[in-house]
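Deliverable D4.2, example record:
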Amino acid sequence: MYKKLLPSLILIGCTVASYAQSTLTGANLNPQIGDAFAIVNCVPDTVTARNGGPAQTWDFTSLVTTSLDTGNAVSCFTTTHCAMFSGTTLAVTSPQSDLIQYIEANSTKLSQVGYYQAADTNLVLSTDPMDEIRYPFTYLDSFDDSYSGTLTFSLATANEIGSVHVVCDAYGSLHLPGSVIFPNVLRVHSTQVFTDSTDLFGTPTIDTFNISTYTWYDSGYHTAVLTISYVTQFGASSSSYQLVSYAPMQVRAAGVPLVAGAASLLTVYPNPAHDELNIGYDNKTNGNVRITLIDVLGRQVAVIADGQIAQNITYNTSGLAKGLYLLRLQSGEETITRKIEIQ
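Output generated by the structure prediction step:
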């Protein structure tokens, strides 16, 4: 049986002048309702986690992008399936994958309560969640946790039982594509082992998974900056693969109110776009509007409009490189983003 995994959601010595050792706490790491981050998925082949230890410099500027998504922190109660995940304090939606991650975040820990993608693709850990971070957490801190729940995938329902060992094994400076630098990050290494047991068409079936995940966190940045996972599955099915993603940019901050129904005021077409992009926005308040285009490296590549715009704008995209972009509209306290593909 194949198991769909969660994508992921986290200085001393002679270099003390260059690095400041951080401590992760619920206040400076937990996602907050209203946060939104650009998520860049990458080609995983030959990506290594590099060295651990103090005062490291990790150069990942050569990562190759495959797709772009956003991670949006919302109230659990705004999602259709919140009742399945008791103990959840918030949910993180990912529009491209239709995935919703359910999280318990408080002053003592950040835990996975499960995920929902479809009626036949979900994992519920409500009675025994998996702790990702226990606070406070800093260099050389570690803990062990066990967890259990129910996995539904395709035609099968399985009991999942697992354990995880988590250690903060390094700190230093992280360099990402597009000259994005996080100078004082902590790297957390988790080693996860679990089994999925089910009765598949009358035959007892057990799959075992070993997952080694390296996650870089920046104090004050409410999501993982970079995640590299190595997955090995053996048992009824066997496979080995890697997952790599990073979050170079925050596209919306918690505490900034959104106008009710604001997203419906913005239309963007065609998408994918070839030579031009049509943008329509019903500027009901007649206020200043700023529309920008951002590439997958987090760089602003164009200012499409800035001021009291007309209701409809046609923007020439022929000079842009093919690929994925975020279109961001800001008007007063309102921010709307759209994923755009240029062909």
